[in-house]
Design brief:
The complex is a heterodimer. Chain A is built from 16 helices and two strands. By secondary structure, chain A is mainly alpha-helical. Chain A has one domain. In chain A, a hairpin with a 4-residue loop joins strand 1 and strand 2 (115-116). In chain B, 39% of the residues lie in helices and 18% in strands. The chains are: A mainly alpha, B alpha+beta. The interface between A and B is large, with 47 and 40 residues.
Amino acid sequence: MQQYSFDVQTNMSLAKKLSQLSWMLIFLITAVACVGFTALYSAAGGSFDPWASKQMIRFAIGMAGMFMIALIDIRFWHKFAYWIYAGGLTLLIIVEIMGKIGMGAQRWIDLGFIQLQPSEFMKLAVILALARYFHSATLDEMRRIFFLIPPALMILFPVALVMVQPDMGTGGMITIAGAAVVFLAGAPLWIFVTGLIGAAAMGPIAWEFMHDYQRKRVLTFLDPETDPMGAGYHIIQSKIALGSAGFEGKGFLHGTQSHLNFLPEKQTDFIFTLWAEEWGLLGGWFVMILMALIFMYCGWIALRCRHAFGRILAFGLMVNFSLYAIINMAMVMGVFPVVGIPLPLISYGGTAMLSILAGFGLIMSCNIHRDSKLPKMN
Amino acid sequence: MAKVKRTRYARKKHRNTEHDRNLSFTRRAVLIGALQGSCLALLGTRLAWLQIAEGAKYRTLADQNRVNVKLLAPSRGLIVDRSGIPMAVNTQNFRVMVIPEQTDDLEDVLVSLQKLIPLSDDAILLVMKQAKKAPSFAPLIVRENLTWDEVSTVEVNLPELPGLSIDVGEIRFYPIGGATAHILGYVGAANKGELNSTDPLMKLPGFKIGKTGVEKTYDEALRGSAGAAEIEVNVVGREVREMSRNPGQPGQVLTMTIDSELQKFLEDRLIQAKSASAVVMDVHTGSIYALASAPTFDPNIFARSLTPQVWEELMTQEGHPLNNKAVGGLYPPGSTFKMVTALAALEHGIINKNTTFFCPGHFNFGDTLFHCWKPGGHGHVNVVSALAQSCDVFFYNTAIDIGIERLAAMSRKLSFGAVTGVELPEEKAGLFPDPTWKRGKLNAPWLQGETINAVIGQGYTQATAMQLAVMTSRLVNGGKAVKPHLAEYIGGKQTFPEEWPKLGFKPQHLQIIIEGMVAAVNEPHGTALGSKIKIEGMEMGGKTGTAQVKRITMAERAAGVKNENLPWHLRHHALFVGFAPVGNPRYACSVIVEHGVGGGLAAAPIGRDLLLMTQQRDPAAKEIATPNMPIKPIPAQTPQVPKERE
């Protein structure tokens, strides 16, 4: 434990750290965020109010936070990973209890200036805690089933809390991101194979236990045309908006479907549709390429990190980010059920923006401190 | 094998090294990266598929989404009489509309309006009910047919009545009113069956279509075609902007054969007879100059608000004002049918001009005694005097020789038993019986006695005034199969042929019939002598008829009960057919007075007046209004509607 030193200056100068900031990544993040501002400006009918301006302020705040997180020594994050996890879990429980004692079901804590959604930060905290746990794991340990029980609990406990909110989407995302981290850490493949088979087998059983509306959602996804005015409406309208755009799109501020309000949730979950309606296939691909570059850059950061904590943390966070991006786009294109997953950095939403940028902060911290020596726990 | 095992062992040995962990991580990271990459690639392809391959399909869907086609009702075609006088026009219909979302309180506004113009509580309730269902930006009709005074009152108070507005629609107006009600019919909202029509106009709320009369027959031409405005709407249907507008095609002008002055005259004349119908037509062209049925009704009440009380009254009134009896009323033709018998007998060589029979006042056939209408009989009669005096026995004598089949064939040539094809949907076919019909209908063989009844137009035979007028025309026009029609031009196109086919009668036989009819009106003992036209050159020929409503019983015949002393609904129908002028027949008419007791008494005077008036106006000699001729102004008491508001 004595190896820890939180005096940043003693190990790396601030100037050195700044020079190590991944400007390429910052540029890519800003580019994607600008896509978001443009789309939100259009969603409001050519106005910064009510969405674009707020989103820009949040982005600015988030960027500041991101820099701070990036500059903080990786050993700090390593040391306090479990504490952060515990804090997140506490917030989740508080939200749950507040819901129970008469404030109505809610997912956030109102801090006055911002409504904090603990589940958003929990996503990061889970990955942080898992990275810490697997940091010093040996491959032999990874093969021991008992060694894998604590991380499984670390994933399942917050997932259970999020699921009862109920927020199936976020719960599922934490599960998948957590599983990816466990996979990266080197857990035996049979666990995942068994898990997949088990999930598949659970399908029919889950179907039995599903509420009618949940079944309907699944059926609607399989064939949206069965319920064009009801649950299938979102998917159909989104496909119409995308499909009618063509190669070059309908032009900035000229997306008919979104501006005439045929497109639901245009500023949040379906913002990609609005963007691609106005900017066409070119615009859609542009966003996808930016996203891919971000994935690649973060992956590269993870791979060249010299400690397992950083590798797992950076890659895990990247996987988490990519899951949101991919599932959201798949959703609006009608190849994945509508599960209420926003498009990161682009969709309107405060906590999501802050947590995403915090995640990138951690990734950058991994980059800056890639050569740091982290203690082995065992 | 051994080599492989050793390698594996060697690898296992070094499993804990940092290097191996790194390698494992990298492998798995690359795997996940590949998965992400392929996911993105698939999404990129999917987007391309949606936007390029299926783009056209979705563009169509998108346009359907946002573009609402709003139908614009075309102006209904005018109906004018043969000289261009309007018979059916469209007048402005001032309506008070309300847009619920622009009011502070819908009910308050409507109650305030109630203080300004007559507005029933029910109407307010109806609007409130509609407002709950319709989107709040959709205008609702509060009241229609405002007078100019009401319009000004509302206009002045509009600043205090937020959400209200005045709107101008079109409403059908029949300037002549009751006199043309039966010919023109009226318009009304489409009923359920008619709504299935493919015409998109049918879906317009409040769109009116022809319900009866020529309004119905020529509905398609009069209706015009729908205009359309393409309107961009948002998801709740609120109009964002108008993209294009096509005003549509107004309905075509329908020029009627009717002479509206003659029509008005005839209707007035018939109303004096309580319940009657009459037709006057051109024997050569088939143009109907007047066709009327009394009593009548005001067709304008159907376009405006028709109250249940008024409807009830129209439905129950004696004489059935809503029915067009000239084409829809079926009567035994009585003695007016004798020309058919006479022509059949002449054409088949059973009699000639000089054949005489003795009329003792009755005719024995087997055990049955057939009476002549004249007790004591007519003595010796030939075909001309038999027609003039309407001797029944003369025709009884020809009955068996003609036979029912040949009589039926002749009656059909002269328009009995089938619709004449006049453009009135209410027209009935009537009936002339023959053995086939009787077997099919009553499952009984034809009796010879029935033929004897048939030759004088009694028995099963039923005909309309329209058919009798056509019969008369065909007898006096040289045997041409003329068909009646009410439309001269539709949108400038003539509706009937220039020449009608010949029926193949011998001219001398037709001349004998004409002689008989002339004698009936102009010779002593003629049944219609009292209705003789004494003006030189305008003399008419004709034939009276009396159709039994109730069979005269032996007791009544013995007691000498006079038909006119029976209750109205049991009295005989009075019929008359006629033509004029006698020298060169041009006009033919038929008149049926329900329960008028006797043809010579009730029907012939109307026929005389009608033919006289027709000849004086002489519509056949006047030029017909062509579409190029300007529409004449509506004469007299038409409501003066202000041209512009504001």
